[in-house]
Design goal:
The protein has 151 residues and is α/β, with parallel strands linked by helices. It contains seven helices and five strands.
């Protein structure tokens, strides 16, 4: 599914919560993915993270493909060695989950990962991409930071 996009937890939270500053932009991207017939994937790891903050029923589940995180995905995720990035942010609880999500996208050959997390998830993806360790392309969070839509 090279043309598929994995939706990160931060993107989903922004999409589901109209009080978030970039909610409208997230909706525009969601509509763009729908109209482009771009498969939208969520990892079971993303579901677990999302449900800590919000009800799963707030998501348009009928439009999303749920991918279970298998032992094959786990092996790929472990190869990215999150420990090398541990010092980039103090006590980041979700560091391991971010790397599992990135590894999941890589293991399933997903072409894109979209996030509203410019400080960590995006930085991890970019570092791995620059090292040549993952071909996944990020939808740069600049569109979220500026609040504009740029597919």
């Amino acid at each position: 599914m090279r043309n598929a996009v994995l939706l990160d937890t931060s993107f989903l939270i922004t999409l589901a919560d109209p009080r978030r500053p970039r909610h409208v932009v997230a909706k525009q991207y969601f509509q763009y993915f729908l109209s482009s017939r771009m498969p939208m994937v969520i990892s079971s790891i993303v579901v677990a993270e999302f449900c800590v903050r919000q009800e799963l029923s707030t998501l348009p589940l009928q439009q999303l493909i749920l991918l279970p995180f298998t032992h094959e995905d786990a092996v790929v995720a472990a190869s990215f060695d999150f420990k090398a990035h541990k010092g980039t942010e103090k006590d980041r609880q979700s560091l391991k989950d971010d790397f599992k999500i990135i590894g999941h996208a890589h293991a399933r050959n997903l072409g894109y990962l979209i996030t509203d997390d410019a400080d960590t998830m995006f930085q991890y993806c970019e570092a791995l991409r620059k090292e040549g360790r993952t071909p996944a392309r990020n939808q740069t969070p600049d569109w979220f930071l500026t609040g504009t839509f740029h597919p």
